[in-house]
Write a structure and sequence with these properties.
The complex is a heterodimer. By secondary structure, chain A is mainly alpha-helical. Chain A is built from 28 helices and seven strands. A five-stranded mixed β-sheet of chain A has the order 4-3-5-7-6, with helices on both faces. Chain B has one domain. Helices cover 72% and strands 0% of the residues of chain B. Chain B has four helices and no strands. Chain B is globular, with a radius of gyration of 15 Å. Classes of the chains: A mainly alpha, B mainly alpha.
Chain lengths: 755, 116
């Protein structure tokens, strides 16, 4: 007991030290390879040569006089390699190198120490098993103080040390990631092996913790939190600024509200459902911080929020904690949809989960009568499948189901009020989520599982009210598109799947991977549901929640995204059914076969996660340079100017949202190129025409991420945007307003023609 | 006489509400302000009201508290925006008042009786 605590304590101190050292070591260092001469740093020979020439000096003579000073020249013998302009600098940089070596040595020492601690722990439980008291392991009160660590404490310490090691390895491996080397297969192409090993370590540790009896929910929660940090935090630590162009557009809407304290519904749809942005502006003003920080951390924040309602939901159908937490785990390794960025749907999904949780917890009828009809159904099935009856023989031991909560009438009123307030907050924030809530509640009521008929009625009135009074601007303009597509299932599925099937060869791998992983999760869920059903666990509420959102496909293609959204809305229940493949009923799944199968499944899903979630990362991430280019542009561009980008993947619209007009040379509306893209010169000619015809200023922005998008999605022939960029650089009609390796901005050099 | 530790929760919520308000109105630029405002907006107004229900399930209580707080903050922000009264300070005061009223009601209740 004492030993385990001591090891846990020192392990914690080590981990804190480790993290501190890693953070210090990862601090950005100024470019050490430059040459300091005079007051300027020169990074290349050419650059310095130019300077010397301007002073009338020759580079050769300079090198002869100052041997070993220039970092790009091979160092002559006897000179410290890191020497720069002055002696003081040389000493300083040498000292820094020494510190780095010390840190490396310290790190190795810490690793050894932690490894030793881990070894001790591995020996620990054996000692416990050998102890003469057979009941020591069950930690009957009083036996703990004998001095032999109880099994649960040892297990906890072991899991915590494993997690610490994995986190440290994961954190340190991130330094090796070079985003510039990424290929069209996404983040996976630049992940160091250590990152993946660290994740697998967490997955195996989680699978091992599930075998503990009694189940330690706190340990499982810890694993889930580490998993969330690793899966959803990786881009926050590796990338310089928030990912996704749409994140920046959302920042622009928030900026509009902060700046004007108003909403103008004529601008676009965001200003007809501005709830999330109003909240975001509210937070911005109260904290006094740039909302970019919030945008950066949204994926972690939102995913962390989802944990609690998921557990509440799962507990309504099972008392088996392993099943609950395995379901949560599977949810997070398969939530690759990426709707958890700084967006209305990311936050509204949390409220959706909470409303479902309240309904299942407090507004459901007992599921007992479903067990009866389940029997009738099985008799029917058994007659049909008589020849293979032996195979489907069910072990009929109904689990004691958690009963619907018995509520005081006042509690019922209070919970109804809370549900309606949550819903009222969703309605002005997002178009789709309210419909999903009404749909799933109606499904539960229609099947006699919930008596709360009033809820969907009041909710429908709320939706209608908002749409009629506050979103009418949008509705009037888009009524045709909204209604004409109702019932076009072919079009919906085609838009969802078919149209995403083009792009570079590596991108197609990602696309097929997404289809494959979707099919895998749903197949696992189906098998799990069947297995649980055979063990007399019908879980009819979850089946309804997992299936009813598919009805949305009948209504709207939602810009070709509906299938993805449906995947997200049914994911909690699919994940739960997938988990019940391993634990069909409490007490089942205690063999090593289950553990191995579970571990393997976890690994497959984890690997798939990185392909599916971060498959387009090359075009989804941005750099400081790209954002800086846009900032400079907004500083100089007159309101009313036309801003043209090569393709849609760039961080823009984050400022003065309503003041500019925007256009794309190669639109990526999911339809692909309409015909063969014209040659670069011709494309530039068309852009020039567009810019000249614009009464106010016009600008052409070409950035790294746009070129990446054009290549990945196959928007044009390879190198089209590079061609446009070169043609504009050399054309006398254009002048370069801003140039950095990753972003160039052009405007017209000549006076534009008056229209 | 011993104090039931869970009875301190609403007091803590009220304290955070007041501290956050002071920091915001003095316009203190500090990480403490960010932390307090974040905790307040995420938990306090909802917790003060949800506790009146005496749900006897800490996880459900916390889940509802966070969701309810976010929803209230969102609704207050939207209401101010559409009423042409946009003022983050006023929004904060409304949420603080909700928190304090909830806390006061709570103190008048016995430990296991749901409120009206």
């Amino acid at each position: 007991m004492l030993k385990a605590y001591a090891i846990g304590f020192f392990g914690a101190i080590f981990s804190v030290l480790l993290v501190a050292i890693v953070v210090l070591a990862l601090q950005p260092q100024e470019a050490g390879r430059g040459l300091l001469w005079g007051d300027t740093v020169y990074t290349s020979k050419q650059e310095f040569n130019g300077y010397l020439k301007s002073k009338g000096l020759s580079y050769k003579t300079w090198v002869a006089r100052n041997p070993g000073v220039a970092p790009w020249e091979p160092a002559p013998a006897g000179t410290p390699t890191a020497a720069t302009g002055t002696k003081g600098d040389a000493v300083e940089s040498w000292a820094r190198e020494l510190t780095l070596h010390t840190i490396e040595l310290a790190l190795i020492g810490l690793w050894l120490a932690i490894g030793g601690a881990l070894l001790l722990l591995l020996l620990g439980p054996r000692a416990a098993r050998l102890s003469p008291t057979p009941f020591a392991a069950t930690s009957v009160s009083g036996t703990e103080s004998i001095g032999v660590p109880s099994r649960t404490v040892v297990a906890a310490a072991r899991a915590i040390v494993t997690l610490t090691l994995a986190s440290a390895a994961w954190f340190m491996s991130l330094g090796e990631i070079d985003l510039a080397q990424m290929t069209d297969i996404g983040l996976v192409s630049v992940l160091p092996a250590a990152t993946i090993v660290a994740l697998l370590l967490v997955a195996l540790s989680f699978a091992w913790c599930l075998t503990l009896a009694p189940t330690r929910a706190s340990l499982l929660l810890l694993h889930v939190l580490v998993l969330i940090a690793m899966l959803y935090g990786i881009t926050i630590l590796v990338e310089e600024v928030p990912r996704f162009p749409v994140t920046w557009r959302h920042l622009g809407v928030t900026e509009y509200i902060v700046r004007t304290g108003d909403v103008d519904p004529t601008i676009d749809a965001y200003f007809n459902w501005p709830g999330f942005f109003a909240l975001s502006a509210f937070v911005t003003e109260l904290t006094g911080r740039n909302p970019q920080v919030l945008a950066e951390w949204s994926p972690i924040l939102f995913n962390a929020l989802y944990v609690a309602p998921l557990v509440v939901i799962y507990r309504t159908v099972t008392t088996d904690l392993r099943l609950v937490w395995l379901g949560v785990w599977i949810f997070y390794v398969t939530n690759w949809i990426g709707q958890d960025y700084y967006s209305p749907q990311g936050l509204m999904y949390f409220l959706y989960l909470v409303i479902v949780a309240i309904t299942l917890h407090s507004f459901t009828r007992s599921q007992a009568k479903w067990t009866g009809s389940r029997r009738r159904l099985r008799v029917f099935v058994r007659r049909l499948l008589d020849p293979i009856r032996a195979l489907i023989r069910a072990k009929d031991v109904p689990e004691r189901l958690p009963q619907p909560a018995e509520l005081h009438p006042r509690q019922r009123v209070g919970l109804t009020a809370i549900t309606l307030v949550l819903f009222a907050a969703i309605v002005p924030s997002h178009q789709l989520t309210p419909f999903v809530v009404v749909l799933v509640l109606t499904a539960l009521i229609a099947f006699g599982l919930s008596p709360a008929l009033g809820l969907p009625l009041v909710m429908s009135v709320l939706i209608a009210t908002w749409t009629a009074f506050f979103a009418s601007e949008y509705l009037v303009g888009h009524l045709d598109t909204l209604t004409s597509q109702v019932g076009e299932v072919g079009g919906t599925v085609g838009a969802n799947v078919g149209e995403r099937l083009h792009g570079s060869a590596e991108h197609l791998v990602v696309v097929y991977m997404r289809l494959f992983m979707t099919a895998t999760v749903w197949a696992l869920a189906m098998l799990g549901a069947i297995r649980a059903y055979r063990r007399a666990q019908p879980r009819i509420t979850f089946a309804l929640l997992a299936l009813s959102p598919f009805l949305l496909l009948l209504l709207q293609p939602y810009g070709g995204e509906m299938l993805l959204r449906v995947y997200l809305f049914v994911l909690p229940f699919m994940a739960f059914f997938a988990a019940s493949l391993f634990y069909p009923q409490s007490g089942a799944g205690r063999t090593w076969v289950t553990s191995v199968a579970l571990g393997l499944t976890s690994v497959v899903l984890l690997v798939g996660f990185f392909f599916t979630r971060y498959g387009n990362e090359r075009m989804d991430y941005f750099t400081v340079q790209e954002v800086d280019a846009m900032r400079r542009l907004y500083d100089v561009a007159q309101p009313g100017s036309l801003l043209i980008a090569g393709s849609g993947s760039l961080p823009w619209k984050f400022r003065d949202y309503e003041k500019y007009e925007y256009a794309l040379a190669l639109p990526s509306d999911g339809v692909g190129p309409a015909g063969p893209t014209p040659r670069a010169a011709k494309l530039l000619g068309a852009l020039k025409q567009l810019m000249q015809n614009h009464p106010k200023g016009a600008y052409l922005i070409i950035t790294r991420s746009q070129k990446a998008e054009a290549e990945i999605l196959g928007l044009a022939y390879p190198g089209a945007l590079e061609g446009v960029e070169q043609a504009a650089s050399s054309s006398p009609i254009f002048k370069t307003l801003y140039a950095s390796p990753q972003a160039k901005i052009f405007t017209l050099a000549t006076k534009r023609r008056r229209a | 006489m011993t104090v039931n530790p869970t009875r301190l929760v609403p007091a803590a919520a009220a304290l955070i509400a007041v501290a956050a308000t002071v920091l915001v109105f003095l316009d203190v630029d500090s990480p403490l302000r960010v932390a307090l405002v974040a905790i307040f907006l995420l938990v306090c107004p909802g917790l003060a009201l949800v506790r009146l229900l005496r749900l006897d399930d800490p996880l459900l209580e916390l889940t509802l508290a966070v969701a309810f707080s976010l929803a209230l903050a969102g609704l207050v922000a939207v209401a101010l925006l559409y009423a042409d009264l946009w003022s983050p300070g006023a929004g904060l005061v409304i949420l603080v008042v909700i928190t304090l009223v909830g806390t006061l009601l709570e103190s008048t209740l016995s430990d296991d009786q749901p409120a009206t």
